[in-house]
Write a structure and sequence with these properties.
Radius of gyration: 29 Å
Number of strands: 8
Order of helices and strands: HHHEEEEHEEHEEH
Shape: elongated
Helix content: 40-55%
Number of domains: 3
Distance between the termini: 82 Å
Strand order of the largest sheet: 4-3-2-1-5
Length: 221
Amino acid sequence: MLPLLHTVFRVALLALAIYFFFLAWNIDVTAWLASAGIVGLALSFAAKDTLANLFAGVSIVADAPYKTGDFIRLDTGERGMVTHIGLRSTRIVTRDDVEITIPNGIIGNAKITNEAGGPSTKHRIRIPVGVAYSSDIDHVIETLDGVAGGHAEVCADPAARVRFRAFGNSSLDFELLCWINQPADRGRLLHELNCSIFKAFQREKIEIPFPQHDLHVRSMP
C-alpha cells in the first residue's frame, strides 16, 4: 500500500511542477490539458481491467476480508491458503500444493468464505450419518461422542456435540459436530473420523442402512 501512495504522490508533484512551469513561462496549457485528457481517456479504456484490479486491491487492503495465512473459499470454487495479497492479484495455495493467482477484480465481486475468520482460529466440521430405525439412539450418541473424544486432533474445548437431525426415508439422521485447530486439515480429519465411525458402528453392532424403495407391480386386466 505504501509504495503505491508514494508513487501517486510523486506523480502528483511532477504534474504540479510542470503546470507551474508552464504558467511561469506564459505558455497556454489549455491545449495541453485537452490533449492529456484525451490520452488519459484512451488509456483508461485500454487499461480498464488493470484499473479494476487495482481499485479492488485497494478495497481488499482497506477492508481486510482476509489476511496472509487465512484459509479462504470463493463462490467460483477456488479454496486454499492465502500466501500473498497484492494490489493487482491475490495468490492462494490449494491442498494439491498448486498456487493460483486470482485477479482482485474477480475477488472483489465474489462471495468469500474465510474459514480462518471469526474470533477463534478453530474450525468446525460436520459429519452426517444415518442409522437404522431399530437403533438405540442413546447408544448411537454415546458411540459418536466416543469417536470424537478419542481423536487426538479434535478439540476438547469447545466439546464435540451429536445432534439427532431428522427422520429420514430409510434412516435416523444424526450429525457429529466437532472443532479442529487448522482448516487446512479438514479433509484429512474428515477421512479419519469417517473411518473411525464406521469401525465403531461395526464393533457396536449399529447398522448403517442403505436407501430402499418398495416396488409394487399391478397387473393390468
